[in-house]
Amino acid sequence: MRRFGVVVTAVAIATLLAAIAVTPSDAARRNTPGRSSAYDGLWSVSIMTQSGPCNPTYRYPARIVGGIVQQAENDFSYQISGIVVASGGISVTVSQGLQSATGYGRLYGSRGSGHWSAGGGQCRGTWSAIRRG
Question: Potential cystine with 92: which of 36, 46, 54, 103 (Cβ 3.0-4.6 Å)?
């Protein structure tokens, strides 16, 4: 269960969730309708677990480039994929091996917030983000 909590940490990203890996996936490279660069920059994401056996709190940096959320650090032990649309809506999936966590929410100005879940709903919580650069 401890390793599963590490996957959820990445949602901080996210979290956002919160993103995609440093090298965007083929789907992310396509010109996705509605994708927005208005939220591009470095973000600090905090993840809070509200239920389940996952670690209670995480803080993690994430970067948004061209509406694509990416890892801000070179930690390749997990993969992130996600997108931000013009309205500020954001969807993020973080995976490590066969485990994954998904986050949804909204960015507005230099802040954002939303919800996440992992393990088929075994862990759930909220996330918040602040733009740093």
Answer: 103
Domain CATH number, residue 64: 2.40.128.120
Give the contacts of 24 (CB within 8 A, at least 6 positions apart). 68, 70
Give the integer Cα–Cα distance in Å for 114 and 131: 15
Write the pLDDT tens digit of every residue in 62-118: 889 999 998 887 777 777 779 999 999 999 887 778 878 899 999 999 999 999 999
Range of the structural domain that residue 113 is part of: 2-131
Reduced to 3 states, what is the DSSP secondary structure of residue 120? helix
Closest alpha carbon to 72 in 95, 99, 44, 96: 44
